[in-house]
Amino acid sequence: DRPEDMEPRSPVVTIMGHVDHGKTSLLDAIRNANVVSGEAGGITQHIGAYQVEKNGQKITFIDTPGHAAFTAMRARGAQATDIAILVVAADDSVMPQTIESISHAKAAGVPIIVAINKIDKPSADPQKVRTQLLQHEVFVESMGGEVLDVEVSATKGTNLDKLLEAILLQAELLDLRANANRTAEGVVIEAKLDKGRGSVATVLVQTGTLLVGDIVVAGNEWGRVRALVDDHGEHVKEALPATPVEILGLQGTPQAGDRFAVVTNEARAREITEYRQRLARDKAAARHVGQRGSLEHMMSQ
Ligand code: GTP
Ligand code: NA
Ligand code: MG
């Protein structure tokens, strides 16, 4: 990519945090507060990721159970996220999965924004959260650090705007860019086999523009893009960088965290996926032999 081809793109955000601290509630609250008019009752189709618009700028939220998806993607070497929102319930404060989330974000070099949630609760103690975060080297601004923190209530809808502004501020510092004028590449967020529609893969386009008709290799699978469905359930002709979209038309179901790329023709797609499927089979066979070997070893002791 030439520097002049790199245009600003939206930030991609994942929500992480301890069980029951309000990850899903926060994602739902943000989505429902920002539904496009005409989408009655905020009934958007769930595709595993969605975009909202704030001050004319888009933010992409990965809407799968943040922690698990992040871990799965990291394990497969895929980096889908620019910013991690760390949700900490103000009545429960820092807990084991809060600490785990911090290590994941730090290991991936992804900046954290702290959402101190459930501030509507009488037992909320946001200051305790900030103090406890110090012990895990998350230094929020009021503690002399640079990590942005926002007190929110997902259920009351308090300060959701402030959280979106913090995300845009953080994104500006990151100066996120992508080249839209090339064939698409990105990462699979989730994929399933749908009875009516066949293989349905939700992907995040990270670079280039994905088009209906493109030939895509995703992990060990390939197919010609029959249709693209956006986060509002609308059929679209193309998906730009940082856009989540469903791909219909793959011949098999790839895995979360698999990378995808557009290739020039079907023969090339077949060649790549046959090679990968053979590798996967060989690996599985080797693992099987390894297990049997160690079992025989154990039994001969
Ligand atoms: P897991 O996905 O199971 O880890 O949980 P989660 O982090 O997604 O939390 P979830 O959104 O399911 O919320 C857990 C509980 O906390 C639910 O009963 C929510 O209604 C409640 N809750 C979430 N946010 C708030 C909030 O801002 N205030 C109050 N009072 N309750 C909240
Ligand atoms: Na929960
Ligand atoms: Mg949840």
TrEMBL record:
Region called G-domain, residue ranges: 11-159
Residues that, per the record, bind GTP: 17-24, 63-67, 117-120
Location of the Tr-type G domain: 8-177
Record's subcellular location: Cytoplasm
Source species, domain of life: Bacteria
Segments crossing the lipid bilayer: none
Family (UniProt): Belongs to the TRAFAC class translation factor GTPase superfamily. Classic translation factor GTPase family. IF-2 subfamily.
Functional note: One of the essential components for the initiation of protein synthesis. Protects formylmethionyl-tRNA from spontaneous hydrolysis and promotes its binding to the 30S ribosomal subunits. Also involved in the hydrolysis of GTP during the formation of the 70S ribosomal complex.
Record protein name field: Translation initiation factor IF-2
Organism field: Mesorhizobium zhangyense
